Amino acid sequence: MDIDWEAHGWERLADGVGRRRLPVWDATVGLVLGTRAVLLYDTGASLAEGAELRSQISALTGGRKVTHIALSHPHFDHVLGTAVFAGAEVFGAVGSDDLLGGARAREELRADAVAQGQDAEAAEAAADVLVAPRHVVSGEWTLDLGDRQVLLANVGPGHSGHDLALCVPGGREVVFCGDLVEESGEPQAGPDAIPSRWPDALDRLLALGGEEAAYVPGHGAVVDAAFVRAQRAELARRFEVS
User: Fold this and answer.
1) In CA terms, which of 1, 165, 223, 236 is 20 to 30 Å from 157?
2) Which stretches of the chain drop beneath a pLDDT of 70?
């Protein structure tokens, strides 16, 4: 797929695979292109951010629409743009459907977004049309995008109670990690984190990707297996678990 990712502000990771680091919170979104489907991993922190992504993806792909969305975890900077992708099939870790489908979650996401500096009206507008996953992943789920298959893996809990990774096979496998891995800052453990399970979640990521994979953090630069192992060791020390 001959795409000039960089011209549109994206980073090419492999053939038909790219990502963008969004402004303000430095959250990553991933994009995987197949002959029959277009998969977006996370959707940004607002409807405006989602709409900008939709426009960029259309420009990148010659007018194609996002057909599938995978949500890495239910935090505002990763899910509030979902509603702009009308018709897309939305996937999340099991339990995220009930969480994001509830009024309490909408209010908590709105409040968290505002507390982190999001415009109050933008946060409320996105929370009002919050999209819950229709498809839930309890173990692993293979998606056929046409000429390629990708794997959604429920590797959590850890950073949250509902962490979903995306593995894209290829010459060098690409693993989108969500906020289980962070490079641009110390991993954040909010009130919904499960610290005792987080190192195990990173072990599962490493088992999926292997030594040669490119690991894409939820925030920051792409890293390798050695970085993920080092972060796993630091989290185990920090939370006093093995």
Assistant:
1) 223
2) 1
Q: How far apart are CA 113 and CA 94, in angstroms?
A: 23
Instruction: Specify the pLDDT at position 1.
Output: 54
Q: Using an 8 Å Cβ cutoff, are 42 and 82 in contact?
A: no
- This prediction has a pTM of 0.97
Contact status, residue 121 vs residue 129, Cβ threshold 8 Å: no
Residue type, 219: H
Give dist(CA 23, CA 177) in Å, integer. Answer: 19
Q: Which amino acid would we find at residue 180? A: L
Which of these, 161, 234, 154, lies nearest to 197 by C-alpha position? 161
Distance CA 164, CA 44 (A): 16
| E strand spans, the chain | 11-14, 17-21, 28-33, 38-41, 68-70, 89-93, 135-137, 140-144, 149-154, 164-168, 174-182, 214-219
CA distance 78 to 227: 23
For the beta sheet containing 38-41, the strands, ordered from the edge strand earlier in sequence to the opposite edge, are: 11-14, 17-21, 28-33, 38-41, 68-70, 89-93, 135-137
- Cα distance from N-terminal residue to C-terminal residue, the chain: 43
